[in-house]
Amino acid sequence: MRAFRGNGRPTLAELARAVDLPHATVLRFLQTLEEEGYAAREDSRWRLTPLVFELGFAAMESLGVTDAVQEILQNLADAYSGTSNLGEANPEGVIIIGRAMAPAERRRLVVMNLRVGSVLPPASALAGGLRLGPGEWTRFDYPDSNQVSVAVPVPQAGSRLLSVGISVAAPEVAGNRLEADMVPALQQAAQTIAGVIRVGVV
C-alpha cells in the first residue's frame, strides 16, 4: 500500500517494480485488497479507495491518538499560530503520530511536507525531546523558513518514548514568551496527553 505514495494510479507493472515482487504475487495482493474494498481497478490502473482511511483511524486509535489527544494538539497549534506534533521514538529519529495545524499555517504556501507517519531526524526538536528529563525542553531553529521548534518529553508513557512539540514563526517566540509561556503550555499538554494515553487503549 505504501507503493501508492507518489503514484496514485499505478499499473500492475509499476507496483511490481516498486515492491520488487513478481507480477502474479502483486496481482493476488491487489485482488484481495479489491475484494475487501481497499483498492479498485480502473482499466489497467489501480487506486486505493477511501476505505483505507479506516485503517489510518484504527492505527491512530491503537497508538493512543484519540480525539482527546487530537484536541490537545489543536489547542496548542491554535494558541501559538503554529503546528503541533506528537512523536514516538523511531530507529531513524522520531515518527509523527499526531499532528494539528492552526488555520494560518494551513494557508501558508511554504510548508514542510510533513504529515502523520513522517519521520524526523535525530537532530529535530521533536526527536530531541524524547529522552529529556522532567522539566527539560529542547529548541531547534530553522533560519531558512524563519521557524522555531520546541519540544518536551511526554512523561510516564510506559515503555513508549513520546514527545510533544510545536513549530512556530520566529516572531512568536520574541522576548521571554518561549520560556514563560510556550514551554509551560507544552509541559502541561504533555502531562495531559500522558494521562489520556495511560487510561486509553494503549
From TrEMBL:
Domain of life per record: Bacteria
Pfam (any one): HTH_IclR
Gene3D superfamilies for this protein: Winged helix-like DNA-binding domain superfamily/Winged helix DNA-binding domain
Residue stretches making up the HTH iclR-type domain: 2-78
Molecular function (Gene Ontology), one example: DNA binding
Cited InterPro entries: HTH_MetabolicPath_Reg (IPR050707), Tscrpt_reg_IclR_N (IPR005471), WH-like_DNA-bd_sf (IPR036388), WH_DNA-bd_sf (IPR036390)
Source species of the chain: Achromobacter aegrifaciens
Matching SUPFAM superfamilies: GAF domain-like, Winged helix' DNA-binding domain
Descriptive protein name: Acetate operon repressor
One BP term from GO: negative regulation of DNA-templated transcription
